[in-house]
Design brief:
about 375 residues, mainly alpha, two-stranded antiparallel sheet, 15 helices, 2 strands, about 65% helix, about 5% strand
């Protein structure tokens, strides 16, 4: 039989007679197996360095949980809420930073400028909070004004590397990193010279007015009403990518840039606005730090939190809907690692290695051997 005859015979077969593709393990199962493998690897690492590996590892996994006590005199009581509050506080900041990195990633832009955008946005929110009432602005509008100042500052600072990429062909990783340095030094100059509280014993801005501070939600923590902005920000990012023309342009530019150019899509606009939108989300993280967590800005605010947002975006596979869960997982892991370091015989370096192992396994969930993956796919029924 000729090749043409074989082709006609195969197309003549009914659909039921055609060979089915082998089942593939669904992403959910792969992620679950990656988490289990990561936990086992972390336990093995703990067993090598600790005299009580099970207790130390249990502290890592449960160190962020509050204690629940009951007594006849006082009833049910929660203790260690500070640690649990720390998880929520970190998760809020990391969610905004994860969104700030995930949006440019969807346009295939590796923006590393979330740190600088966050610093300048926090500075803008603080300056607005300190001078708004002095300039005669109404108190009820102070917090919205500070939020607008932060978002506009982050948007503008995120716009710069996008414009440099489109107009000058500059690499966005280099420009965003250099802009981080400029933003950090400008932040330190502003806090140390222009906004410094002369009555404080160290370089810090004055305390923000009560009208500029987000209301607390949990006692003895800095969990504030800005927590309610997290689902709104996630929904806004998801709707931007899936329900708008700009989101379509961003997704096509990231997945098939050559096709986007041939189809006449405004690739340059998608690149610039994706990075600017990322800056707006990073600004919310700065607003959370200045007007929610610290209520003032110190000159020695540590840089590097933006790179944690990069890790959160990678854990979430740049999916805005998965970003808050990845942020919560990472914040839980960080708080548990700090508790493990303080409460057990495991050193800080070992804690960092265990933390990195867990994150590495979760990020590299496709490294499961194909034979094992095929067996599990048949057992679980494949992708769903």
């Amino acid at each position: 039989m000729t090749a043409e005859t074989l082709s006609q015979a195969s197309t003549a077969l009914p659909p039921a007679a055609l060979p089915l593709p082998p089942p593939e393990l669904s992403r959910g199962w792969r992620l679950a197996l990656a988490v289990v493998a990561a936990l086992l690897a972390g336990l093995a690492m703990t067993a090598l360095v600790s005299r009580e590996p099970l207790r130390a590892y249990l502290v890592l996994l449960t160190g962020a949980l509050p204690d629940v006590d009951w007594s006849r005199a006082h009833g049910w009581q929660l203790h260690r809420m500070v640690r649990f509050g720390t998880v929520i506080e970190d998760a809020v900041t990391l969610t905004f930073l994860g969104l700030a990195v995930a949006l440019p990633f969807r346009a295939r832009q590796f923006s590393l400028g979330a740190d600088g955008q966050m610093f300048l946005a926090a500075l803008a929110a603080t300056a607005t909070s300190l001078y708004w009432l002095q300039l005669g602005g109404p108190a009820w509008l102070l917090l919205p004004a500070a939020a607008c100042a932060a978002v506009l500052t982050g948007f503008a600072w995120g716009l710069l590397p996008g414009l440099l990429k489109v107009r000058c062909g500059a690499n966005e990783m280099v420009t965003s990193l250099m802009l981080n340095l400029i933003a950090l030094q400008f932040y330190r100059l502003a806090v140390a010279d222009w906004l410094r509280d002369p009555h404080a014993g160290y370089q810090v801005t004055p305390l923000l007015p009560a009208a500029a501070v987000f209301s607390p939600l949990l006692e003895h923590t800095n969990v504030t009403t800005l927590l309610f902005a997290v689902p709104l920000a996630v929904a806004a990012a998801a709707l931007l990518l899936t329900r708008t023309t700009l989101g379509y342009e961003i997704r096509v530019t990231g997945s098939a840039p050559a096709f986007a150019l041939q189809a006449g899509l405004p690739v340059g606009r998608a690149v610039v606005l994706s990075m600017a939108a990322g800056g707006a989300f990073a600004a919310l993280a700065g607003l959370h730090i200045s007007n929610g967590l610290l209520k003032r800005l110190p000159v020695d605010l540590s840089p590097g939190l933006g790179y944690d947002g990069l890790l959160v975006a990678l854990l979430a596979r740049n999916d805005p809907r998965a970003v808050p869960w990845a942020a919560l997982f990472y914040a839980w892991l960080r708080t548990g690692a700090q508790t493990m370091e303080r409460s057990t015989d495991v050193s800080r370096e070992t804690v960092l290695v265990i933390q990195a192992l867990i994150i590495l396994f979760v990020v590299a969930e496709r490294l499961l051997p194909k034979r094992v993956s095929d067996v599990l796919a048949r057992w679980t029924g494949g992708a769903r």
